[in-house]
C-alpha cells in the first residue's frame, strides 16, 4: 500500500507515530481546499469557512462518537493542553495526578502552569514492564491524596507506545470527584475511541497521526459543563462576536486570527479513505504484526517487552528500552547510514526505541531493522552504556 502515500521509496519508514503520513488522496483534497482559499480568500476565511469547519466537525464527531458541539479544532494536542492548563480552576496546594510516562511537551506545560498557582504536579512512578492492568491501576492510584483534584493521563503514551486503561481510570476518578483530562494524541483511527462512553471531561486527539490528515489537524473535546470556563489562548473576533454562532465554546476557540485551516477540512476525506480501503481490517493486521515482531525486536536490543504482548497494551506501536548513552547519535546513524526513520527517545532516566507498523510496512522491514541493530552492536559503541 505504499503507493497510496507520498513517502520516499528509499526510506524504511517506521515512525508513523510521530507525525503520521498523508495518503495521496487526502493530500489532493487538502490542495483543493487550499486552492479554493486562494481563489477567493475573503469569502473562504470570513464567510464560507465557518460552515466548512462545522461540516468537518460533524464528520469527526460521528467518527469518535460525541456531540459536534463539544468539539473544536486545534493545531495539535499540546495547544489543546495549554487551553486546559491555563484555565483549570485549581487552588494553591491542589494536586494533579499523572504518570511518569507522559509526553514531554505536556509535562512542561503542566509544570509551568502549576508553578504559577502553586499546584503540585504529581508524576506517579509506573513500574516497567507492566504486569497487568490491575497492577497498573493499583500503582497509579497510590499517587492519589486528599489534595488531588484532577487526573491527566495519556491513553497511548508516546515514548513507550503502551495503551493505558483510561476507561477504568476515568470511571474511578468520577467516583472520587476528580476532573479528568485524557491525552489521546495517538488514538483516533489507531484504537477504538468512543467519547460517549469514556467518562473524560476533556480529551484531545491528533487527526494528523493515524487518521492521516495533513499536519496541524487535531481536536479538543470538552464536556458542556466545562465549556464556559475556558478562555481562549488568543483573544480574537470570536470574543463578543457581532455574529455569534450560538456557541461561546466555538466562537472563542475556533477562529483566532488569519490562518490556513484547510487541514481540518480534509477529515471527511480521511474517513472516506479509511472506509474505501477497509482500514479497520488493515489496522488489525498491523497490530497482529506488531505482536509478532515484538519478541525479536526486544531480543535484538537485549531488552524485554514493556508489557504482556496482548492487544490490551499494544496497538500499532512497540517500544523497547535501548541501552545507549547517545540516543540522538543512534537515531542519526539509523537514518543516514541505513535509511531507517524511527525515533530513539530520552524519557526520564531511560531511552526507548519505537517502531510503528502501518499498512505499507512489512515484516521484512523489521527483519532489516534487527539486522541493522546487530551490525551497530558489532561495529560501534552506540548500543552500550558508557561509564
Query: Order of strands in the sheet with the most strands?
Result: 2-8-7-6-5-3-4
The CATH class of the largest domain is identified as Alpha Beta
Intertermini distance: 45 Å
Helix content: 40-55%
Q: What's the order of the H and E elements?
A: EHHHEHEHEHEHEEEHHHHHEHEEEH
The assigned CATH architecture of the largest domain is 3-Layer(aba) Sandwich
Q: How would you describe the oligomerization state of the chains in this entry? A: single chain
Strand percentage, roughly? 5-15%
Q: Biggest sheet, open or closed, and with what strands and sense?
A: 7 strands, mixed
Basic shape: globular
Structural class: alpha/beta
Your description of this structure?
With 387 residues, the chain is an alpha/beta fold. It folds into 2 domains: 2-24 and 276-379, Aspartate Aminotransferase, domain 1 (Alpha-Beta Complex); 27-266, Aspartate Aminotransferase, domain 2 (3-Layer(aba) Sandwich), CATH 3.40.640.10. It has helices at 16-19, 24-39, 41-64, 77-87, 104-117, 133-141, 166-175, 224-227, 248-253, 262-265, 267-276, 279-300, 327-338, 363-379; strands at residues 12-13, 71-74, 95-99, 120-124, 148-154, 179-184, 202-206, 218-222, 317-321, 340-341, 344-347, 350-356. Helix 7 (166-175) links the parallel strand 5 (148-154) and strand 6 (179-184). It starts with 11 loop residues before the first strand and ends in an 8-residue tail after the last helix. 44% of the residues are buried. The model has no long low-confidence stretch (mean pLDDT 96).
Looking at this protein, list some descriptive labels:
387 residues, alpha/beta, Aspartate Aminotransferase, domain 1, Aspartate Aminotransferase, domain 2, 2 domains, 7-stranded mixed β-sheet
